[in-house]
Design brief:
It is a single chain. By secondary structure, the protein is mainly α. The N and C termini lie far apart (50 Å).
Length: 199
């Protein structure tokens, strides 16, 4: 069930209130926050409608898709918590539910007895693929902005996130490259090629 259209633009109305009654210098910042919040509510409602049809929450879906795309099809619970910004206790609950539904299984880490890995099952991989297909066609492909404006918006929000220390700006590109290399190495290994063969 989606939201009904508001009778007016609450972001613009709030900006004018701030200009008139509160702090003119803060009005644009407040408008940014309110615009992001209401956009999140709008899109979150659409996304949740899709994942609910698969008996998932977005948090469980997100964990599944990271597992489905990991070269080893497994992640440590601590990595999930740190990277996806999910408290450890919540990660445990998510993994419990996914395991109960036979979408993942827990296994001991091969070289660290203190660490547990979550490993996706074939059933989990299929569910992640089906849910992602629907999210792409129902929500993501229909985001109400053309491609160039989407890119611009993502870049602007990256600047905002970086200014708030939401991610390590200095190491981000390096870590992303490492993740990409892991995926490439796994693909090359499966196809019987060495890294030199495809360089």
């Amino acid at each position: 069930m989606g939201f009904e259209a508001a009778p007016f633009d609450v972001v613009e109305a709030s900006r004018r209130v701030w200009l008139e009654h509160w702090d003119p210098e803060a009005a644009s910042g407040m408008a940014v926050f309110t615009a992001i919040l209401r956009s999140y509510q709008l899109l979150s409602d659409q996304v949740n409608n899709v994942v609910r049809s698969y008996d998932l929450t977005f948090a469980r879906y997100e964990v599944l898709t990271w597992l489905a795309t990991d070269p080893e099809s497994s992640l440590t619970l601590s990595w999930i918590s740190k990277t996806l910004r999910i408290p450890p206790a919540t990660v445990t609950n998510i993994i419990d539910r996914l395991e109960d539904d036979r979408l993942i299984r827990r296994v001991p880490h091969p070289s660290d007895a203190r660490t547990t890995l979550a490993v996706i099952t074939p059933r989990g991989r299929k569910l992640a693929a089906d849910a992602t297909r629907d999210l792409n066609s129902i929500v993501y492909e229909r985001i109400g902005l053309p491609e160039d404006r989407r890119t611009q918006l993502v870049q602007l929000l990256a600047e905002l996130r970086a200014s708030g220390n939401e991610f390590n700006v200095e190491r981000s590109d390096e870590v992303i490259e490492e993740v990409g290399s892991r995926h490439a190495h796994k693909r090359d290994h499966k196809s019987g090629k060495s890294r030199l063969d495809v360089a």
